[in-house]
């Protein structure tokens, strides 16, 4: 087991220990000068308590991180800290009055609530004395998070008593044009979007199978297999970006990808698709009544996106958050509490219970070594878009809505059961071995997230 910095400090030469003791402990009172501005107070607390030393990609290695024995431990801790949360953007936003990420906010809030950061091996070092959060600092962070959630992330349907929950109930609907929705529904199920007229959007994202196809990799044109697991189309309108790597900014841009992908639907161009659709006189008449400019990439994908905005699936858990306390059983509520206690609700946040950030897969252990199949292009994750090395192996956090019926799991579809998915996430993301009774209760909670579409429970 890796030794901690605290254990290794005993190996420091006497001269360096004297230097450490001579360094003034970080003062954690400067934040008080920003009274009345909680955002700047939180930014000051983060800076003063040394959080950016382990939670900033470009943080310099401290002098003791260059020493024998403890140097490798320090660098590993810094890398792990950054992979979990890089606070650089958040601090900049706080200091300049800009919006913050819902996920970043939830992670910082959890830190204050749980008292887990900074770790003891950091704040017990002489040069870092005074950097652990005191009760007043925690109160500032908790109050700030509550107000940010209220002002920026609150669901319009949440009951007042649950307004500060890290997850929120679905809105009743997203505004749409019903005529465009009808066209989009038809196009979503139309195989003419594929090169050989065999594949539709619904082929890989079936509305009767949880918005997925329940295969590890989807089968496209000519039997070709994709490189990542198909994410659900249900509630996708609530994602920050689309695809596992976030390469599409919205549903419309996402809808333009698969038809021209040679492995998925294999059409040559949207001109080819448009020409095929234009041969259908009845459909053309309906389409031209809504889109006078006719069939093209923009109009086709706009209609599909408009339909996909309607794919919201309210669940029993939403009823609970809307104030129906009888909607959940005692076991389900215990499962929800475990979900929060084990940091699941720091990434699976908000109305979509996920889909708001890109997270590194394997913070505590190497997931890809565990998988044992070698790396693929699909494993690059967000790096494929940003080309930033720190984004390699980061994937958009999937929604947990309908998670019980959207198997298999992970970006690679390699985990077949929800029980194994829970174990893997605990071991590789938070470094914890979860017990079978705890898993059972979390599953009881996850079952409450299976929702309804058009008044019918998904199966």
Automatic annotation (TrEMBL):
Residues 179-311, 330-450 form the Cytochrome c domain. It comes from the Bacteria. Pfam families: CCP_MauG, Cytochrom_C, Haem_bd. One of its GO terms (molecular function) is metal ion binding. Residues 1-27 form the signal peptide. InterPro entries: Cyt_c-like_dom, Cyt_c-like_dom_sf, Cytochrome_c_Peroxidase/MauG, Di-haem_cyt_c_peroxidsae, Haem-bd. One of its GO terms (cellular component) is cell envelope. Keywords: Heme, Iron, Metal-binding, Oxidoreductase, Peroxidase, Signal. PROSITE patterns: CYTC, PROKAR_LIPOPROTEIN. It is found in: Cell envelope. PANTHER family: CYTOCHROME C PEROXIDASE-RELATED. This is Cytochrome c peroxidase. It comes from Parabacteroides chinchillae.
């Amino acid at each position: 087991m890796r030794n901690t910095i605290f254990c290794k400090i005993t190996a420091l030469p006497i001269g360096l220990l004297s230097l450490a003791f001579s360094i003034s402990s970080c003062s954690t009172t400067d934040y008080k000068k920003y009274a009345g501005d909680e955002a700047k107070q939180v930014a000051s607390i983060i800076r003063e308590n040394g959080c950016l030393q382990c939670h900033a990609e470009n943080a310099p290695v401290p002098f003791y991180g260059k020493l024998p024995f403890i140097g490798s431990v320090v660098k590993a801790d810094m890398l792990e800290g950054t992979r979990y949360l890089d606070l650089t953007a958040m601090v900049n936003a706080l200091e300049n009055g800009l919006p913050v990420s819902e996920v970043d906010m939830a992670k910082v809030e959890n830190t204050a609530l749980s008292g887990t950061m900074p770790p003891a091996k950091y704040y017990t070092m002489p040069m870092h004395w005074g950097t652990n959060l005191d009760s007043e600092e925690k109160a500032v962070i908790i109050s700030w998070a509550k107000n940010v959630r209220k002002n920026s992330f609150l669901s319009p349907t949440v009951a007042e008593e649950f307004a500060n929950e890290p997850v929120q109930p679905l809105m009743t609907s997203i505004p749409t044009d019903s005529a465009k929705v009808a066209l989009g529904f038809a196009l979503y199920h139309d195989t003419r979007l594929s090169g050989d007229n065999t594949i539709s959007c619904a082929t890989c994202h079936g509305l009767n199978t949880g918005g997925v196809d329940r295969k590890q990799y989807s089968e496209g044109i000519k039997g070709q297999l994709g490189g990542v697991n198909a994410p659900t189309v249900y509630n996708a309108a609530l994602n920050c970006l689309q695809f596992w790597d976030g390469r599409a900014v919205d549903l419309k841009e996402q809808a333009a990808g698969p038809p021209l992908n040679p492995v998925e639907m294999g059409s040559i161009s949207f001109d080819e698709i448009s020409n095929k659709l234009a041969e259908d006189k009845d459909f053309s008449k309906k389409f031209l009544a809504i889109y006078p400019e006719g069939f093209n990439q923009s109009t086709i994908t706009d209609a599909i996106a408009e339909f996909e905005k309607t794919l919201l699936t309210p669940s029993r858990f939403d009823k609970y958050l809307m104030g129906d306390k009888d909607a959940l059983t005692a076991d389900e509520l215990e499962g929800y509490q475990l979900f929060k206690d084990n940091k699941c609700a720091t990434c699976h946040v908000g109305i979509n219970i996920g889909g708001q950030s890109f997270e590194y897969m394997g913070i505590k252990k190497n997931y890809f070594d565990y998988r044992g199949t070698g790396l693929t292009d699909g494993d690059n994750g967000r790096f494929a878009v940003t080309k930033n090395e720190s984004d390699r192996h980061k994937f958009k956090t999937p929604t947990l809505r309908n998670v019980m019926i959207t198997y298999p799991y992970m970006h690679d579809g390699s985990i077949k059961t929800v029980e194994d998915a829970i174990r893997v996430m605990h071991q590789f993301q938070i470094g914890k071995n979860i017990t079978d009774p705890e898993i059972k209760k979390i599953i009881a909670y996850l079952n409450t997230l299976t929702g309804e579409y058009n008044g019918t429970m998904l199966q």
